[in-house]
């Protein structure tokens, strides 16, 4: 797990934990964010049993930690207190869930999330396949959270600019633009592993496709509504 203490404003700390396997990935996003922020501390581990550990205790002094995770009881980032410490987990979605649910030091923290009803963030990390539409990299998630908590939308564009440049360079040198696994499944062109007999996995895949089709229908209806509205 990798833990990066991200500090943007003088009164609010940001932390990010990441899975040790993430260090093996050649195109990780967190070093880009680390370079862009004034104060960034990285801790690699698989479990966080307590925030009283020496490498965190002093950093969290007089701070209220919040875990960036989209749970139902999460508060939106624009409602975080001034002394909030934003903690995020870096890794694949499977690794992040495993870290969260096996780390008592993190699972018991209050959660925060980006308010997607006010802010629409499109995936910028187009050279890696995301599991679903709307899923983004750790860098993008933290950038969105920072922009919302600081109430400065330009922060998102500033902090994700290096990621867009990275993707542009990779595309120029032969990389292919990736679409989400969810979209590829819905269009019948996913060439990865597929469940054949496991009913739970088959059901999850079916629901994934249904959610994609629903999103596309809602998007088309919204576009049609806006088009009619502009013609009035």
UniProtKB/TrEMBL annotation:
Q: Which Pfam families match?
A: DTW (PF03942)
Which GO MF terms are attached to this record? tRNA-uridine aminocarboxypropyltransferase activity
Span-the-membrane segments of this chain are: none
Biological processes, Gene Ontology terms: tRNA processing
> Domain DTW: where?
1-175
Q: PANTHER family attached here?
A: TRNA-URIDINE AMINOCARBOXYPROPYLTRANSFERASE 2 (PTHR21392)
**What family does the Swiss-Prot or TrEMBL record give for this protein?**
Belongs to the TDD superfamily. DTWD2 family.
Per its record, how is this protein called by name? tRNA-uridine aminocarboxypropyltransferase
């Amino acid at each position: 797990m990798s833990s990066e203490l991200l500090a943007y404003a003088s009164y609010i700390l940001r932390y990010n934990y990441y899975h040790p396997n993430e260090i093996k990935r050649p195109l990780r996003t967190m070093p880009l964010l680390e370079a862009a922020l004034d104060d960034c501390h990285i801790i690699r581990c698989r479990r966080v049993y307590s925030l009283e550990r020496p490498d965190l205790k002093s950093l969290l002094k007089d701070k209220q930690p919040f875990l960036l995770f989209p749970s139902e009881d999460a508060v939106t980032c624009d409602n975080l207190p001034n002394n909030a410490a934003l903690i995020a987990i870096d890794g694949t979605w499977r690794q992040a869930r495993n870290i969260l649910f096996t780390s008592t030091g993190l699972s018991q923290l209050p959660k925060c999330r980006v308010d997607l009803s006010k802010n629409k963030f499109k995936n910028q990390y187009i050279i890696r396949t995301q599991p679903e539409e709307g899923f983004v990299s750790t860098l993008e998630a933290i950038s969105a959270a920072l922009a919302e908590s600081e109430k400065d939308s330009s922060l998102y564009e500033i902090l994700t600019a290096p990621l867009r440049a990275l993707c542009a360079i990779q595309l120029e040198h032969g990389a292919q633009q990736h679409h989400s696994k969810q979209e590829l499944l819905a269009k019948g062109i996913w060439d990865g592993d597929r469940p054949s007999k496991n009913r739970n996995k088959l059901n999850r895949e079916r629901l994934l496709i249904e959610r994609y089709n629903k999103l596309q229908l809602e998007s088309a209806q919204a576009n049609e509504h806006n088009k009619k509205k502009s013609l009035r």
